[in-house]
Inverse folding.
């Protein structure tokens, strides 16, 4: 069994995998990421351990982790070799890179538009042969709500609505309609730009926006972990 770990801006997600099959997913929000990671293999040691992190893993932690598995693969800004081996530009964040690898595997031979709805809204484009064309980054849904509250003097902080009006009739509903409808327009614009592409949603708000789509899309909630599973599985195949 392999162990996959994704350390994001606000939370850690992890899962054991057997090939491309993911097991139970674990989630941790806190500051003691490493302590939590070591609890995951307190009983069973992983064959391959893949850790993708928004922050750089220290040399001390890498040394400790290397004793807990047969092979350790680190994906952070200090370890760009993996991106270079996959033909992706090294400026990509780990989550975008892993998502692209997973989509290449899941939708081989298809042009794809990948939308990740998290703290940011990232949109990446792939040709049918898997070539990365580039992508865009804008504030995510909740980030937009927080920005309106923070950078204005009178606008309140509102939560993502269960049902959003197309046009607001109050300050809160105007914010809800503006943010949600604006993102829906963005999605439609990207679909219009690449009408033949398969559209793949992932991230925390993926299901929320998928329910509001009139056209067919795919939702893959653990797309990043699937990309990490592919990295681990390819290492096993080479041995």
């Amino acid at each position: 069994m392999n162990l996959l770990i994704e350390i994001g801006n606000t939370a850690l997600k992890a899962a054991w995998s057997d090939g491309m099959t993911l097991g139970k997913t674990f989630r941790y929000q806190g500051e003691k990421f490493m302590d939590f990671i070591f609890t995951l293999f307190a009983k069973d040691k992983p064959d391959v351990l893949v850790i993708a992190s928004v922050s750089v893993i220290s040399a001390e932690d890498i040394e400790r982790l290397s004793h807990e598995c047969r092979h350790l693969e680190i994906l952070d800004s200090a370890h760009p070799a993996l991106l270079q081996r996959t033909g992706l530009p090294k400026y990509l964040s780990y989550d975008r890179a892993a998502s692209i690898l997973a989509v290449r595997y899941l939708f081989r031979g298809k042009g794809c538009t990948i939308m990740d709805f998290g703290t940011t809204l990232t949109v990446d484009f792939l040709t049918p042969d898997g070539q990365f064309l580039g992508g865009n980054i804008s504030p995510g849904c909740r980030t937009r709500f927080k920005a309106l509250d923070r950078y204005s003097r009178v606008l309140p902080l509102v939560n993502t609505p269960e049902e959003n009006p197309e046009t607001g009739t109050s300050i809160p509903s105007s914010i809800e309609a503006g943010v949600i409808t604006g993102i829906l327009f963005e999605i439609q614009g990207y679909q219009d730009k690449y009408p033949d592409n398969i559209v793949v949603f992932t991230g925390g708000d993926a299901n929320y926006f998928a329910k509001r789509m009139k056209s067919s899309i795919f939702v893959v909630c653990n797309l990043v972990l699937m990309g990490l599973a592919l990295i681990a599985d390819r290492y096993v195949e080479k041995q």
